[in-house]
Amino acid sequence: MLTHDGILSQPKVSIGHKLLHLHWIYVILLTLTASIGFAMLFSAAGGDFDPWASRQMVRFGIGVVGMIIVAVIDIRFWLRYAYGFYFVVLALLVAVEIAGFVGMGAQRWISFGIFNVQPSELMKVAMVLALARYFHGGSIEDVGRIFFLVPPLVMVVVPAVLIIRQPDLGTTLMLVLASVAMFFAAGVRMWKFILAGVIGLISAPVAWFTILRDYQKQRILTFINPETDTLGSGYHIIQSKIALGSGGMFGKGFMQGTQSHLNFLPEKQTDFIFTMLAEEFGLVGGLTLVALYILLLAYGYVISMSSRNHFGRLVGIGVIVTFFLYIFINIAMVMGLIPVVGVPLPLVSYGGTAMLTLLFGFGLLLNVHIHREMTIGRRDSGDEF
Amino acid sequence: MHRDSERHKLFSRRALMLAGGKTALLSVLVGRMYYLQVVESERYVTLADENRINLRLLPPPRGRIVDRLERPMADNQQNYRVVIIPEQAQDVHKTLDRLSLIVSLSAGERRRIMREVKRKRAFVPITVRENLDWREVARIEVNTPDLPGVLIDVGQSRSYLHGPQTAHVLGYVAAVSEKDLTGDPLLELPGFRIGKAGVEKVYDLALRGSGGSSQVEVNALGRVIRELNRQEGQPGTEVRLTIDRDLQNYIANRVGNESASIVVMDVHTGEILSLVSSPSFDPNSFNKGLSQAEWESLISNPKAPLTNKSIAGQYAPGSTYKPIVALAALDKGVINPETKIHCSGVTKLGNAEFHCWKKGGHGPLNMREAIEHSCDVYFYEVARRTGIDRIAAMSRRLGLGNPLGLDLPGEKSGLVPSDKWKRGAIGTPWQLGETLIAGIGQGYILTTPLQLAVMTARLVNGGRAVKPHLTMDVVSEEGVQPYPDQEADPLGIPTEHLNIVLGGMQDVVNAPTGTAFRARIQEEEWRMGGKTGTVQVRRITKAERETGVVKNEDLPWEERDHALFVGYAPFESPRYAVSVVVEHGGGGSSTAAPIARDVLRETQRLAALRAPDQEAQAYLKKREEG
User: Fold this and answer.
1) Is position B319 annotated as part of the catalytic site?
2) Distances in whole angstroms, Cα of residue B243 to Cα of each of A85, B168, B432, B611
3) Mean pLDDT in runs of 10 for chain A (385 residues)?
4) Nearest Cα to B156, choosing from B236, B83, B75?
5) Cβ–Cβ pairs < 8 A, chains A and B
6) Of B18, B38, B41, the CB nearest to A181
7) A332 chain-B contacts, CB cut-off 8 A
8) What is the ipTM of this complex?
9) Distance between CA B54 and CA B39 in Å, rounded?
10) Is B44–A187 a contact, with Cβ atoms under 8 angstroms apart?
11) Rounded distance between C-alpha atoms, residue A345 and residue A37, angstroms
C-alpha cells in the first residue's frame, strides 16, 4: 500500500493524482442507485421526465461535481474548518428560528433568494465534521473522562433542540443517533451509553408532555394502531402496506403500480418512493436497491477503517451511519415498522437538500479514501495547511 | 503513533460492532419485505383491487306501457339537464351568472348549487336545472365557449303521453322513499323512480327490469380512470293494457270536470277498455316533483282528484240494483214475472211510509214494466217477499260485496248487507223496512263503479262469472305470457230469468215510456239497454215531501243526488258493458244515461272502424266457436 500509494501520504499532492485515486467504483455505485431514483420519478410522473426526474438528474449531476471537489480538497482543510462550518450552520438554524418561512407545516427552510436551504440537513454533515475533529484531538484517556464529553454533548444538544422545535422529529432523531454512533466509535465507555439509555427511558414520558407536538404524538399513536384512523395519518401507512404487499415477488411492472398511479399512495415521489419501487418491481426490485445500499455501506466501512488518521476514520463512520439511518428509517417507516417521521430515501427520493447533503457527505467519505495514508497528529488542527 | 494505533484498534472494534448492529437492522427490513410481499401478498392484492375497482350500477330503461293496440301511453323521454363541473368551471359564480342569462335560476336554486359545489368533489357534475326545452339546450350549446365546465346531460324520465286522462289507470312514478328500500341496489341510485300508484305500482318489478353494472377503475379521489368491464342490464318489460287509448281520451273529455267515474268492459273477456275517474291530475308533475301549492290544491279539492273512484269510490247503486232484486225474486220463485203489482205511490209498513219516486204512483205493473219505469213500490214488495239474505246471495253472485281482483292497487270491496252482517257490524237485528230500502238499492248497500260494470257484464253475457282485468297478457317479473284461455264459469242463473230482466233493461232505453228513452242510441245495430239510478245523499223530510221536493239544481252541489247508469250494447248480442256514476250529478236519466249513450256509441264506433282488424276477426271466430 505504502509503496504504491505512498505519494498520497505526502502533504502536497496534485489534483490530477487525487482524481486518479478517486474511488471510482463508489461513484459508479452512487450513480446506479440514483438512476433507480430517476426511473421511479419518471414513473411517478406518469411516464414523464417532468416535473421530477429531469430536475433530479440535474441536481445529481451538479452534486457529483461538488462531491468530487469536496473529495480532492486536502483533508486538513476540513479538519481546520470543521468548527467554523459547524458554527455557520448553527447560526443558520437560529436564523430559521427567527426568519424562516413555513413550508409543509414546519419551519425548516431559509431562503437565499434563488434557492432555499434547509440548515437542519447541513447540520448532519457539520455535526459529523465537528465531532470528528473533537474526538480526533482526544486521547483514549481523554475519552474516558466524563468532563471531556461535555463539550461534544453540548454540540449535539443545542442543534437537536433547535431542530425539534421546528418541528422536525426525523432529522432530530437522525442527528442524535448519528452522534451517538460517533461517540461510540470514538471509544466512549459502554456503561455511559447504558446510563444514557436508562435516563432516556425515564425522560421519555416527560418529552411526551413537553416537547412533542400534537401531530407527532398522533403519528406515534397511529403507528401503534393504524386501523383506528384510516382516513387521517393511518391512511398513509395502510396504503403503503397495501402497495408493497400487492407488488408481490416480481411487482406489477414499470409504471403499472395501481396504488401509486391512482394516487392511493401519498408522497410517492418523496418519502414513499420505496413503496412505489416495491409495488412496480416487487420484492426483487426492493432487494436490488437494498443490495446496492449494502455495497455502498460496506465500501464505506472499508474506507473508514483503512484510514491512517483518526479524523478520517470518524468522518467516514459518521457519514456511513448517517447514510444508514436515512435508509433504515425510511424503509422501516414505509413498511409500517416505525412511525412516519418524514425521512427521504437517500439518493432516490425527490428533493434537493437531502441529495446535496448526502453527496457532500459522500464527498467527505471519498476524501477520507484519497487521504487514507496521511497521518495527522492529535494536536494537529490543520493550521499548517 | 503507538497511541494512535491503539485508538485505531478500539475504533475498528467499535465500527465492527456498529456494522453488526446495522446488519441486524437491515435483516429486519428484508424480513419485513418478505413478509409483506410474499407471505401476506395475496391479502394486499385483494385490498389494492378493492381500492381501485368500483362497481357502478347502470339503471335499466323502464318498460313502456301501451294500450290494446300497442300505442304508447307511458314512455321514457330524454330529459335534458344542464350540469356544471366546478373543477372545469374555475369560477363557479361567474359561470352561473352567465348561465342565468339563458336559463332562469332563482336565488334558492343558486344556494343549493353552491352548497353542493362545496360538499362534493370538484370533478362531480352538479345538476343546475332539469327538463330543459329545446330552445334552452340550443342556446347553451351555442354559448359553450363562454360557459366553461357547463355540460348538457341526457337522462331518461317517465312521460305520460295522455297525462290526466290515464293518470288513475297508469298511476305514476316518483322518487324512492325510505320504506320502499328492499335491498335492490337499483333503488339506492340517485334519481331512480319507482311506480307509486296504478299499473306502474302493480307491475313495478316487471317494468323496472334489472340493472346492469360497470366495473370502473377509480383513483384515490374517486375519479373514474377507465371502464374495466361492463354488463348490460335487462330492460323493463313492456306492459300491454286492455285500455283503448282513444276511448279513454274520449270519455275523459266527455265527462269534463264532473266528479265522475266511467268503466267500460268487454262482457266476455273481462278486458277493461276504459277506466275513467274524474277529475284527474297530471302524473308528469309527480315525476318532476310537485310544488306545495299544487299539492294542496289537489288534496283540498272536494272532488278528490287523487282518488280512483272507479275502484275506490263506493256508492249506493240505487235503481241500477233493481235487476238483481228481480233475479233474486225469480230465483226464489216468490213472484210470477207477469203478475201485476199496483203502485199507488206509497207503501205502508207499520207506521212507516215508503214512497215511489213518482208522486201518485205508476198503477199496475209487471216485472218488465217495473224495470222500465223503475217503480219503487213494485220493488219494495218484491224485496219484502224475497228477503234480504236471498238478495245478498244474488248480489254476490253478480260480483258485488267483494273486491274483484282487478290489477290495480286500492280496490274497495263495497258492501252487501244481510242480517248476519248487521248483527256483526252494528249489533242490532235486521229490520224488514231495511229490506224494502235495499230493494231499491239504497240503505247500507255500497258498490264501486267497477262492480256495477261487472254486474252488468254478468247479466248480459249469459250469466257467466267474468272477471275484470287490465292487461292483455299475464305480466310477471319473468316476462309476459298470454292469458289462459278460460271461459268464465256459469253462475247458474236460468236464461229465462235473465231474458225477463234484459227485456226490462231494453225498454228502459228504447221504449218511449222508459226512464232513459231520451238517451237511446239511434243507430240500429248499436242500440243499448240499461238501467238508470238516482241516489239521494240527503234525507227528504216529511214536511218537504208535502210542500214539494226541492229540485236538484236548487241544492248546493254536495247535497245533490248521485246520478247512475249501467248499460250494455248492442242489445241483440251484448259485447260491452258500461257503468256511469256522476257524483251529485242530479238524475240518472238526465245526467248519467246520456254519458253512457255517448260512451257506448263511441266504443262501438271505434270497434267498427277497426272491424277488419285481427282483433275483431279473432273475436268473431271465438264467438262462433263458443
Assistant:
1) yes
2) 98, 12, 43, 17
3) 51 80 94 96 90 92 94 93 94 78 53 68 94 91 88 94 80 92 91 89 81 74 60 74 90 87 83 93 95 96 93 95 95 88 90 88 95 84 61
4) B75
5) 137
6) B18
7) 28-29, 32
8) 0.89
9) 27
10) no
11) 9
